[in-house]
Specification:
Blueprint (H helix, E strand, L loop, with lengths): L1 H27 L7 H9 L6 H36 L11 H14 L18 H22 L5 H24 L3 H11 L8 H19 L2 H7 L3 H6 L4 H23 L5 H13 L4 H23 L10 H26 L1
Length: 348
């Protein structure tokens, strides 16, 4: 027992230290080289530093680092609770169709002539317009409401999963149809948004983004006991006194909310939600969600901060799309999951 407890604390401290180190590195490194001492002075509000450096740190790198930290935590937690609820190791935040709903909302805002946002200037800053966030939230919210209404009629978790996949297919079809009737510059901007970025959130957006994500993460921490019970199966969980209907509603609502907020502000971010829960389970060797939930939050933050750091190109103004980096980590994990399950099946 002591050895297991020591392993938990050592792993948790290592994750926390790694997250803090990566957060600082995200503030220091970028297309413009800023010394560590200058970065610390700027964060502490000390005078005497370059105004250009101050603007880069305060207006760009700090919001981006905060966004990466919270987005990684939110996506990883969403993936964990969905994998537990559906009892499917390949479940992820986009599986319910919420991300596709957000994408369809953004597609309407960008691709359709009557919904095009102001000041399309072929830059990432065009997407900092609040109308893009609003369109994504509306699209994601409508899909979430549809999923919740289907849950009142469908009790089979596998069928809910299938319904989410079908909703994603329908949304993708609508987006494909809109692509045909759209100008090339609008298509380019929508494609860039679809690649994901933690740099779309400004200081002004943080006032809304941070409370929404923290609310969702706080709600997820209350699901630990229900998730532990659901691992035994719904029949056994109901026999133990768990209100299955309320637990299902809470899980889908929390996961959908987190996915909707992250997709609305950052675009659809792939692989973090599916990969991190498995890596954390492997690290902590436990299925207890009282341990997994906080560990997955920190693990997701570490992954997102690392990917954001790798996406920055020193000496250039451009960055690599986040999804291009997350795929390098997530795809091998998915392949590993498939191989591992195949070995277990053969063993049986």
């Amino acid at each position: 027992m002591n050895r297991k407890r020591n392993r938990f604390w050592i792993s948790m401290v290592l994750l926390l230290v790694t997250a803090i180190a990566l957060f600082i590195l995200n503030l220091v490194f970028g297309s413009v080289s800023i010394p560590m001492s200058a970065t610390i002075d700027i964060l502490l509000g000390n005078p005497g530093q370059s105004e250009v450096w101050r603007n880069i740190i305060v207006e760009s790198r700090f919001p981006q680092a905060i966004t990466a930290l919270l987005s990684g935590a939110a996506l990883a937690v969403s993936g964990l609770i969905l994998q537990t609820y559906f009892r499917n190791p390949l479940a992820e935040p986009s599986v319910l169709g919420v991300s596709s709903g957000a994408s369809m909302g953004v597609a309407l805002a960008i691709l359709m002539p009557g919904f095009v946002v102001n000041a399309l200037d072929n830059s990432m800053f065009a997407f900092q317009n609040i109308s893009i966030v609003f369109a994504a939230m509306v699209g994601a919210g409508l899909v979430l409401v549809l999923i919740l209404s289907l849950m009142s009629k469908i009790r089979d978790t596998a069928m809910i999963l299938v319904a989410g996949i079908m909703i994603s297919a329908v949304a993708s079809s609508f987006i494909g149809i809109m692509n045909i009737f759209t100008r090339s510059e609008s298509l380019h901007q929508f494609a860039v948004w679809g690649m994901g970025s933690f740099g779309m959130v400004t200081q002004r957006h943080l006032l809304y983004f941070v409370p929404l994500v923290l609310l969702g993460l706080g709600m997820s921490m209350l699901l630990g006991k229900s998730l532990n019970t659901l691992q035994l199966g719904e029949k056994m969980a109901q026999h133990l006194g768990l209100n299955i209907k309320r637990a299902r509603l809470s899980i889908i609502l929390v996961s959908g909310m987190l996915t909707a907020v992250i997709t609305a502000y950052c675009g659809p971010i792939a692989f973090i939600g599916i990969a991190i829960p498995h890596l954390i389970r492997l690290l902590f060797r436990t299925s207890n969600h009282a341990v997994l939930l906080p560990a997955v939050m920190i693990g997701g933050a570490v992954c997102a901060l690392l990917c954001n750091l790798m996406a920055k190109l020193p000496g250039l103004d451009d960055t690599i799309p986040i999804n291009a980096i997350t795929a390098l980590f997530g795809a091998p994990v998915v392949i590993w999951i498939i191989i591992r399950r195949n070995r277990k099946t053969r063993a049986l």
